[in-house]
């Protein structure tokens, strides 16, 4: 029975447009690419992508209980917070929502991985710093795994503009394998029995 449970690891990705393939051809986003890598590396796991473009931490928090009950994931990847910043929502609210999601996922028996986000410098140095710290604080408090910056190697490189769609917010198809390479080591550690 234990071997069967290990074989059925399930990764639930709760994210926004960065994980929902916004502006991309189906099957080319980092979550779809992760499914292909799981199969190629013969990792015994399945993936549920519950990402919705435009979602905030409040939306994720309200949707998560039903997703946990329906899918019973062993790993929950939380990729939310960017839209909170774009809407100017209070950082304390973002932090409370992220912490509540981690606690709910852990109470259901799942391990949690946060995909951290950074905002552009035009938000001001103080806000930019405090926003980035929200993810580290929540990961530490909830004893969750953290990838500090989902868009590392995409948004922080000299040729960053070439890796984004025309809106300069959403990564293009070329960027998604880079995003997967950023996320994969942490995800693989969590799905291994």
Can you walk through the features of this model?
The protein is of the alpha/beta class and 193 residues long. The chain has a single domain (2-191), classed as SGNH hydrolase (Rossmann fold, 3-Layer(aba) Sandwich). It has helices spanning 2-7, 30-40, 57-71, 82-86, 91-107, 125-142, 176-191; strands at residues 9-15, 45-49, 75-79, 111-115, 145-147. The chain has a five-stranded parallel sheet with strand order 2-1-3-4-5, with helices on both faces. The radius of gyration is 16 Å and the shape is globular.
Which properties best describe this structure?
alpha/beta, 193 residues, disordered N terminus, 7 helices, 5 strands, Rossmann fold
The outline comes out as: globular
Rg on CA atoms, Å = 16 Å
What distance separates the N and C termini? 14 Å
User: What's the main sheet like?
Assistant: 5 strands, parallel
Number of domains: 1
In what order do the strands lie side by side in the largest sheet? 2-1-3-4-5
Strand content: 5-15%
CATH class label: Alpha Beta
Average per-residue pLDDT, rounded, comes to 94
The class by helix and strand makeup works out as alpha/beta
Q: Identify the CATH architecture.
A: 3-Layer(aba) Sandwich
